[in-house]
Amino acid sequence: MSHASTPLYLPAGPPGTPLDAADAMPSVVVYFRLYMLWLTLCALGLVAFGVVGATTAGFKGGAPRTDDVVVGVICTVLGFALAVPHVIVLLGGRRPWVYTMGMVLLALSLISGGGCCMIPSIILLVYWSNAETKRWFESGPSG
Fold this sequence. Notes:
The chain is mainly α. It is built from five helices and no strands. Helix 1 runs antiparallel to helix 4, helix 2 packs antiparallel against helix 3 and helix 3 packs antiparallel against helix 4. It is elongated and about 60 Å long. The chain starts with 26 loop residues before the first helix and ends in a 5-residue tail after the last helix.
């Protein structure tokens, strides 16, 4: 087997370690990570919206009203609560619990966003639940 013909992936071993074809990352993992990044950015946008809403009066001018502050704080807390699990999955690497947590986040994203997340979530859930994807995560480092 030629060293140049095998793909190289840094997360699976030391840099320059050739991997077997069975150990190659499924393409759904790339799309899943992009989708989780998108959802993380949306949650951080909610944090920014909450901070701006709680500290300014928007376009009205003047000091923020009490209801503006309450809504801003709720949006900020909710945004952080939504961003944290997505960041954990993004930084979790190739561990079995990342597969399970990813499945839960994909299922939860089915009901979020007023339906705009439904189609990508369904497509990703179909490919994510393949045995190949689960096997790839289970063959990674445990922890």
